[in-house]
Amino acid sequence: MQRLIINADDFGISIEVNSAICECFKRFMITGTTLMVNMPHAEEAAQLAKDEGFYERVGLHLNLTSGYPLTENIRSFSCFCGRDGRFNASFQKKTSERLYLTKAEAGAAAEEMEEQIKKYLSFGLDNKHLDSHHHVHTNPSIYPSLEPLIKKYGMRSVRLSRNIYGRMSLLKTFYKKHYNARLKKSGIYTTDYFGSFIDFKRGYTKIPEKSLTEIMVHPMYSDSGELLDTEIPMDHEKDFFNSIGVVYEYY
What we know:
Blueprint: E1 2-11, H1 15-26, E2 32-35, H2 42-52, E3 58-62, H3 90-93, H4 95-99, H5 103-122, E4 129-132, H6 143-152, E5 157-158, H7 170-185, E6 193-196, H8 197-203, E7 212-217, E8 219-221, E9 227-229, E10 232-233, H9 234-244, E11 246-248
């Protein structure tokens, strides 16, 4: 029997997503969520978590690619922000910058990540799980600056790099394996596997029983009000999990 953590990313990004995630908890479609503390509806999301009784299941969705940063220094680096001061995801789109940042750029990223961790903790959320928007925390140029902060603030668990989907380049395969090995060696709690619902559906028969897998979902509503994981009906996902037999867990 498969053991699953189902995490809803992007809590706080919009009113619609906040509502969809709350409904997912009520319908037992997810076991946790992670909050984007720099987004306009983050405070509303944190309050909803307390009001709806799932605040202990809310981790941090670290964000260096969307919205406005919490710190000023990072806005001066074009690899992170545009002239309007918003994150532009430029560094995430360039392999060279995903692999390497200058000392000043890495320092600015560290300042922003620390401020986001502090804001997360200021909401009184003590789950202390960490993942990130667009998986930036797994980048070789980012994780070395993040690792000391994880230890400093006592973050309890961290998401793996995606490891249950198909063919990848040799470079991507190497860095994913290196990151995952480094994370496990650090002693921080994590799962054995991580990917999307589609990844899992295609590859779950190859995952050893009793392994723990995290599945990321992105709840939202269709025009008709149906709960979707981006484009996939979440009722369909739940039916599939029920059909194969799973045990739900959480960070």
